[in-house]
Amino acid sequence: MAIAGEEERAPKLRVFFMPFFAGGHIIPMTDLACIFAKRPCVGPTMVTTPANATLILPTLDRSASFGHPVQLLLYSFPSAATNLPSGIENLASVSSDESWKIYKAVDLSRDAHERIIREHTPDAIISDIPFWWTTAIAKDLGISRKTFHAVEVFPQCIMNNLVKNRVHDHVPTDSHPFTIPDLPGPCINMVKSELPEFLKQRDHLTSAWDDLKKSQLESYGVVVNTFYELEHEYCDLFREFMNERLVVEVHEAGVRVWDGFRSSSEKEKVVVPSEAIERAVRKFMEGGEGEEMRKRAAEWAEIAGAAVAEGGSSHRDLNSLIDELFALQHERKNGKHIE
Length: 339
Description:
The protein is α/β, with parallel strands linked by helices. The chain has helices at 23-37, 50-65, 79-82, 99-108, 110-120, 134-141, 153-165, 197-200, 204-218, 232-239, 243-250, 274-285, 289-308, 313-333, and strands at 2-3, 13-18, 42-48, 71-74, 124-128, 144-149, 177-179, 189-191, 222-224. Helix 1 runs parallel beside helix 2 (50-65), helix 7 packs across helix 10 (232-239) and helix 12 packs across helix 13. Belongs to the UDP-glycosyltransferase family. GO terms for molecular function: UDP-glucosyltransferase activity.
């Protein structure tokens, strides 16, 4: 691992990666930074808080041992202002009823982000979708900001459609099924209790939704943690918490464990019966339907491997992304302001 500030040969393209405070965001973004580090003349930097940095140190050390260093730049987590104990800086470290404190910390990190970006003036920023303000900061400095999505395109299409159509507002009960409108592929049915809280009632994400979408539209593009072959119809739709539905209903490579009530609220949580877990495990492990699911899962694993291999779709997309960032950097150095 290389710490920011060490004297090394200055890379030609400095890219800052700024993840949200959750392992499901930090880990894939770190993996992406390590892939960037393999390209000559690219200098990636992970920008995060001390406790979250401990999650990625082994990955950064491993990347450095192969000659692909990723720098690490830390800023303080606003523990006192969020009334969280020191070292509690991640969504996985709090109960669902205290998750709002992590989102409050996101809002309180805005000044630290602006200070870091203006002080270091990277050539490009890849920042998580909750950090919507980085678009305006980057635009002011004439650098490119890409919005990072840790989840696939499929759930984003669902959320976008539900925000637009609000069909879930018209069901009689939380357990009454409804169909997601305007999706390609198989018909997707859900119940209201499966939806994230911000779609069911106003919360921190509901109030920030407009800012998030506006920032994404004004950013210089998006980077999504997926590969095209997995969900090409949805990728195409996306260009013009529903991951389970993709696995179970679209690819038929998984089993739903529980069809009962769901909620992310501590007060409304229910325990999934052991019998339901046993049924799902048996269904997946035994022959017949389970065998077909395992076969499809293996096929998708092979396709995923081909996508990230040299010449695969994700490999080509990554090369195109880096080449684009180099081109934007060149334009900026020649005095063209990035809009």
